[in-house]
Specification:
The chain is 4% helix and 52% strand. By secondary structure, the protein is mainly beta. The chain folds into two domains: 332 residues, YVTN repeat-like/Quinoprotein amine dehydrogenase (Methylamine Dehydrogenase, Chain H), CATH 2.130.10; 86 residues, Immunoglobulin-like (Sandwich), CATH 2.60.40. The N terminus is likely disordered.
Length: 462
């Protein structure tokens, strides 16, 4: 059968069947997009509204228009592209390729390869630091994280964890400006290494239990959640201590601000963690291997391959809304906020499934940060055009306000004029990012650095 005809027939049959069943519902299968062989990772570029998949067996990256779901381009890279990462400041997409070891850099505007960096040691997972414009690349065979300049793609530092510690997960904590690296190997107790992003040195070594893997940052309480055998560890923002152990496990986790939860999905169950009490509030009999949060509609999506399904949860009531049948191996996901879509890779079908949510957006609940200072006032909040963030605490020289999205992406740094004695320091935000572009509607975290420590405030852009 002609491959183009086969793909078209496959797409038509799937769409007709699903649209008949799902017509009129809030979440439905909108499209099935054929991509390259065995797609492994998927990310959304919010600046260009594009979705990228890494096709491991065809040595390519597929670029999809986030508005139309049309394939824009297929970009050839080296063999076995694995992970993807987006540089929001320079609008670049990074691709790690394991055989041979390369880091490819794709222009987010023209979707062409603009650089490639020779590497070694099986580069895989990445984390991007938008505050300092640095890329952290985990190289598992070398037991190293390599640090690159985001503007010029040049090597800045190499951090080695020792022969017994195999790094397997990375996460950048935007408030503390530290990178957390979970390692598991032959060490007696597996460790999370914490890198100071200013110096790119190891600042902390924290034993957390066997096989730490999934990690998630909670912007409300500013804590980090790390799954390991024997429970999910709750770490401080600096990574110097474990403050709690939650009786749950996870293949993946995501934050849901309704009002302050972590959804932890695993093969046979989904745990809802109340992040005020650091305890499991719900244990749902539906599993998953990947999770994303839709904070516009109050949904959490969990994909699982052995039931070939996507589970849709109402994050306000912690209940299952529906299960949407997918292909043979639904796995990695990303959320397109601009078009209310979830994209799921299927490595067996060589396709990306697109779920659309057409329900009316909900009003996000008011969230109070534990220990939040009454000296920090945001007005008006929610806001449509501009918000004034006032802070009565004394500020360190050069201090200001950094604004982050709920996903931890750096959005804007605010500065204030000299404040007369007896007056509040005021920082104005016009709802735009560092490049002058309007930020998407949603809840943002304003971080105020003062001599009394780091203070935070949630503000909502409508």
């Amino acid at each position: 059968m002609n491959p183009q005809f086969r793909d078209s027939l496959f797409l038509t049959v799937i769409l007709l069947g699903c649209l008949l069943v799902q017509a009129g519902r809030g979440q439905f299968l909108e499209s099935v997009i054929p991509v390259g062989d065995t797609p492994l990772d998927v990310i959304w570029n919010s600046t260009s509204n594009k979705v990228y998949t890494s096709n491991s067996q065809s040595g390519s990256v597929t670029v999809i228009d986030g508005a139309t779901n049309e394939v824009i381009r297929t970009v050839a890279v080296a063999e076995y592209p694995v992970s993807l990462c987006w540089n929001s400041l320079n609008n670049k997409v990074y691709v790690t390729c394991g055989d041979p070891d390369w880091l490819y850099v794709i222009d987010g505007v023209g979707d062409t390869v603009i650089n490639r960096v020779r590497m070694r040691g099986w580069p895989c997972t990445m984390a991007y630091n938008s505050t300092m414009n640095k890329l952290y690349v985990l190289c598992s065979d070398d037991r190293i994280v390599r640090v690159y300049d985001g503007a010029g793609d040049t090597l800045l530092a190499e951090v080695w964890f020792g022969d017994l510690n195999v790094p397997n997960a990375l996460l950048w904590h935007p408030v503390s400006n530290r990178v957390f690296c979970a390692t598991a190997g032959d060490a007696e107790v597996d460790t999370v290494f914490v890198l100071d992003c200013t110096t790119d040195d190891i600042a902390e070594r924290l034993p957390v239990g066997d096989q730490p893997c999934a990690m998630c940052w909670n912007p409300v309480n500013n804590l980090l959640y790390v799954d390991a055998n024997g429970g999910i560890r709750v770490l401080t923002a600096t990574g110097d201590s474990v403050v709690a152990i939650v009786a749950a496990d996870a293949c993946d986790m995501c934050f849901a601000p309704y009002p302050n939860k972590i959804y932890a999905v695993t093969s046979g169950r989904t745990y809802v963690i109340d992040c005020d009490s650091q305890a499991v509030s719900e244990s749902l009999l539906y599993g998953g291997f990947a999770a994303v949060s839709d904070t516009v509609h109050g949904r959490v999506y969990g994909s699982i391959y052995y039931t070939n399904s996507l589970y849709v949860f109402d994050a306000r009531t912690d209940t299952l809304i529906r299960a949407i049948p997918l292909g043979q191996y639904p796995d990695r996901m990303c959320w397109n906020r601009a078009n209310s879509r979830v994209y799921i890779t299927d490595a067996m079908d060589d396709a990306v499934y697109v779920i659309r949510d057409t329900t009316t957006g909900i009003t996000e609940p008011a969230i109070t940060l534990p220990g939040q200072s009454t000296l920090i006032v945001a007005s008006p909040n929610p806001f449509a055009r501009a918000v004034d963030i006032q802070c009565g605490t004394r500020l360190a020289p050069g201090a200001g306000v950094r604004v982050f999205s709920q996903a931890g992406r750096f959005v804007r740094r605010l500065v204030s004029d000299l404040t007369p004695p007896g007056h509040l320091a005021t920082f104005a935000w016009d709802g735009k990012d560092q490049l002058g572009r309007r930020a998407p509607n949603g809840v943002y975290l304003a971080v105020v650095d003062g001599q009394a420590g780091v203070r935070t405030k949630l503000v909502k852009l409508d």
